[in-house]
Amino acid sequence: QVQLVESGGGLVQPGGSLRLSCAVSGPTVTNYAAAWFRQVSGKEREFVAGTRWSGVTGFYKDSVKGRFTISRDNAKDTVYLQMNSLKPEDTAVYYCAVELSNSVSYRVSPWDYWGKGTLVTVSK
Asked: What is the residue-averaged pLDDT of the chain?
């Protein structure tokens, strides 16, 4: 069973930065796409950023372009989300997800495995 564990969330002031990490473990898993989603209570989970196995190209929600960067270290089976210039509207639980056919989708349903999430709060 593939397991994903997120870390790095917390409380940060507007304009600040955080880096989220997602550790992927379990049976040999390779050539997977990875993504970060977020969810606010009472709202649908939304795509934030994603990347294929190569990590060369990142795909982003429009509102985070230029502020967030997704990256990965495949040797460590870890995916990162660097978040800069944070805004109060970025407050949410952030989830890591992987997709075993190495395809990045903006929809929730194609993603095969999910972490339990890490809370990011942007507030003064």
From this structure: 96
